[in-house]
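ok trying this again, last paste got cut off
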Amino acid sequence: MGRGLLYFILALNFELNILGCGSAKPSTRHQPSAQILNVRGKYFLIDCGEGAQTQMQLMGLSMANIGHVFISHNHGDHVFGLPGLIGTMDLLGRTAELHVHGPQQIGELLDFLVRTYYADIRYPLLFHPVDTRRHELIYEDRSITVHSIPLEHRIPSVGYLFREKPRLPHIRREMIEAYGIPFSQINNIKAGASWTTEDGTVIPHERLTSPAMKPRSYAYCSDTVYLPELKDIIEGVTLLYHEATYMHERALRAEQTRHTTAIQAATLARDARVGRLCIGHFSAAIKDEDALLREAQSVFPDTVLAKEGLVIDIK
């Protein structure tokens, strides 16, 4: 593969990698919650249950590419993989900063880990508290923005909304060649400039370019009671991951434990007019997850089941 083609493929990456999609009780079928969102070669780790490192190796995902970790809440099935990950990164000689985002309790956990196990860690471990009661911008770089999504669980819990930033239009190669446009002017044209030929003819920006790909988005909502008001926050996202811990016949149990049923997750997806729904965080008591899928698809047909090793190209 040529270097130019490789860079082009990396520039298009916006994919979700499922490391684990089980719930609190261990099972032989699923790992606890953990995901990696690959945005143009940058890895964003979302929750970090036990076994996350092993799943990364099985899926060929390098932990060296992880710069930011987003934790939803301080329950073991979402954080027990974090201590080991921090240590392994140190053993591998990491020097780059690692940023961890999450509710205040996660900061307390990190303080304990550093104080007890990692006092001599060789890379900066930085914590960024997230207000679980507010929907606000918590991270931004040249490619994406990340906003918090207020959730409601037995302890403070938060989801995350990743949005790709709009790109500039693509310049048409045949126009570059036809009008002899120098490389130095390409970015100006992408930004909206026209091109004037030697004889004074003005070639408008619209003829020289083609529209950029529509920005993609991903919303992660795990461990929460059904919140229909979330539709206004996640309206129109390309992909929604939402917990579906129980069948709808156990809706009362879901309410008691502050979880969601498959039908409730699908109802939110339908009402928010999302592009696609992926359900996960399955109760270990559920032996037939296809029944969960059927329930969800009865409300929102474009639903898939999470499973370890699943890679979803968000497009």
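PB: full thing came through this time. The mean pLDDT is 91.
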